[in-house]
Amino acid sequence: MSKFGFKIIRELGQGTLARSGVITTPHGQIQTPAFVVVGTQATVKAMTPEMVQAIHGQAVLANAYHLYLQPGHRIIEQAGGLGKFMNWPGPTFTDSGGFQVLSLGSGYKKVINMDAEATEESLAPAKERKAHVTADGVLFTSHLDGSRHLFTPELSMQIQHALGADIMMAFDELTSLVDPYEYQVEALSRTESWAERCLTELAKLRAKHPERPYQALFGVIQGAQYEDLRRGTSQRLAALPFDGFGIGGAIQKDRLGDIVRWVNEELPPDKPKHLLGISEPEDIFAAIGQGIDTFDCVSPTRVGRNGSFYTYKGRRNIANAANRRDLAPLLTDCTCYTCQNYSRAYLHHLTKSKEILGATLLSLHNEHFIIRLVDDIRVSINDGSFPKLRKSWLKRYYGP
C-alpha cells in the first residue's frame, strides 16, 4: 500500500507557477491540478458517491468538526474510516474545523465579505458568538444541541486520524479581512503554535496505530491580505515536516493570484498545495496559474440546489421564465448525465415544483462542469496552451 507522494509532471513556466502532477495516496492517485468535491458531512449534497465517480471526481473533502458532532468520529472509525462509511473508494481530505472558528465565532449569523470594503460592523458581537478562541484551542457551542466543546489541535488530529482521511489539515484560526493587522499577527502566532501541536499529536497517533494507512498532514497558511504575514508564516511552516500545505483564510478576491504567489514563492516546490474554498472560474485560473495543485468549494452543489447552473457564458438560473418551454439541454456540448438526458423545461419544472431531483440534476451538472474545466486546464499545462485557454475561456465566460 502506497504511503504518500507528490510528483511534478510539468512546470509550465511562461511567467507562471502553474504545474501538473500526481499525488499518490493509500486510496489512489490524484491527477493535478484537481478540483476536490466537498462532502462536508460525509455526503456530497444531493449526490451519491457513484455520481461523483461518474463525473470523474478524484477526491472528496469532509469536515472534522461536523462529523465530530454527528454521527461522531468513533462511529466512522468503527465503520472502517470515512471512505467506507460513505461508500467512496477514492482519496479523501478532511478540513480541521478551522473554518468554524470564523463561521461560529466572529462571523456568526453574518456574512463576512472577503473584500476591502468590509467593515467591523459585520463582525458578530462577542456575546452572540458560538466559538471563542483561547491559546489552548476554541470553545464551541454546538449548533445542533447547544452543548459545549473545547476543540484543540490535539482533538482535531484525533478526530481526523479516526476518520482515516488520506490528507488532513492542521487546526488553524481563520480570520477575516475585517480583523485589524494586530489581531492577524496574534491569530497567526496561535495558528503556528497549533500547527506544531498537530504534528506532535499525529506522531503519537501514528506510533500508537502503525498498522493504519499513512495519513498526510498539511500545514495551513493564514495571514489575510498582508504580504509580510503570508510570506513569514510560509517560511516558518516550510521548516516543519508537513506533507503539503493548505492556503486558507481571508483572501481579497481581486488579489487572490498575488496572495497565492507570495505563499508559493516561499513554500517548498516539491510539496503539494491546496487552496481552501474556491470554485469561481476566474479564481481557478488565478490559483492554478500561481502553483495551486488542488482546491475545494461547496459552491457547485450549493448554487445547484438554489436553481443555478454553469454555462460557458456565465451562470444562469433555471427558474427564469425563458426556460419554461425550452426543450434543449442546459448545454448542448456537455457530456454530463443531466445534459444528455434532460431538458431545461423539465429542470425548470422540477425547480418550480421544489422537487429534490431538480437539485440533484443541477448539482451533478455543476460539479461536472467545474471538474471538466480543471481537467482541461491540466491538459493545457501539459501541452503549453494554458495562457491561451485562460484568455479565451474567461473572455467567453465573463464577456469582453
Summarize this structure briefly.
The chain has 400 residues and is α/β, with parallel strands linked by helices.
What does this structure look like?
The chain is of the alpha/beta class and 400 residues long. The protein has a single domain (5-297), classed as Alpha-Beta Barrel (TIM Barrel), CATH 3.20.20.105. It is built from 15 helices and 16 strands. The chain has helices at residues 49-54, 64-69, 73-78, 82-86, 98-106, 153-163, 181-208, 227-238, 256-266, 281-289, 299-305, 337-341, 344-352, 356-383, 386-398; strands at 5-11, 19-25, 28-32, 34-38, 60-63, 92-95, 131-133, 138-141, 148-151, 167-169, 216-221, 244-247, 273-276, 294-297, 308-311, 314-317. The N and C termini lie far apart (50 Å).
Arithmetic mean pLDDT: 94
Alpha-beta classification = alpha/beta
Radius of gyration, in Å, reads 21 Å
Going across the major beta sheet, what is the strand order? 4-5-6-10-11-12-13-14
List the domain count as a whole number. 1
Number of contiguous helices: 15
CATH architecture: Alpha-Beta Barrel
- Strand percent estimate: 15-25%
For the sheet with most strands, the description reads: 8 strands, parallel, barrel
How is the CATH topology named?
TIM Barrel
CATH superfamily membership: Queuine tRNA-ribosyltransferase-like
Low-confidence stretches: none
What topology does this entry show?
Layout: E1 5-11, E2 19-25, E3 28-32, E4 34-38, H1 49-54, E5 60-63, H2 64-69, H3 73-78, H4 82-86, E6 92-95, H5 98-106, E7 131-133, E8 138-141, E9 148-151, H6 153-163, E10 167-169, H7 181-208, E11 216-221, H8 227-238, E12 244-247, H9 256-266, E13 273-276, H10 281-289, E14 294-297, H11 299-305, E15 308-311, E16 314-317, H12 337-341, H13 344-352, H14 356-383, H15 386-398
